[in-house]
Amino acid sequence: MINKVLEKHLNQQINEEIYSSYLYLSMSAYFESISLKGFSNWTRIQAQEELTHAMKLYDYLAERDGRVTLELVKKPQTEWDNVIDVMENVYSHEQKITSLLNNLVTLALDEKDHALVSFLKFFVDEQVEEESNVKDLLGQLKLVEGKGTGLFMIDKDVKLRIFQPIV
């Protein structure tokens, strides 16, 4: 059984992951509106991944006899200046999620819940990959100043991304 302190924080993380999904779906809609189908695809897949993360946390909490309590999900941003602005927001958001997960791991260690620490390793590792991927994509966009032929080449590349469910 999971203790109430950790239950509360896991529920907060579920909410953050659902918000992340909602935010990326909003970004996908933005990209659709400016005819960047590849970036729309990339952020839509991000949205799917974040919802999968929320459900993984949901299932874990239920498995540990915790109570999942869903809260209101705040409205995401809907407008950005350009593709670089969006991806800078993605990078910043992923850094925030990393920080929240690190705090959750620290709390699990403080509470001596080694099962939760072990479970959270997946998320910690995932965040390293997420931040690295976004940083690389943002770097490429900055090289081409987020416009012209370079932008369309990157858009074509990110259109190839496919959703891979968590095993």
Protein model, in words:
The chain has helices at 4-33, 37-63, 83-110, 114-143, 148-158. The protein has 167 residues and is mainly α. The chain has a single domain (4-158), classed as Ferritin, core subunit, four-helix bundle (Ferritin). α1 (4-33) packs antiparallel against α3 and α2 packs parallel to α5. The longest helix is centred in the first third of the chain and has 30 residues, at 4-33. The mean pLDDT is 97.
Brief write-up:
By secondary structure, the chain is an all-alpha fold.
Structural class based on helices, strands and sheet pairing: mainly alpha
* Main sheet attributes: strand count, strand direction, barrel closure: none
| CATH topology category name | Ferritin
Query: How many strands appear in the DSSP assignment?
Result: 0
Shape: elongated
Mean pLDDT: 97
Topology:
Layout: H1 4-33, H2 37-63, H3 83-110, H4 114-143, H5 148-158
Helix pairs in contact: 1-2, 1-3, 2-5, 3-4
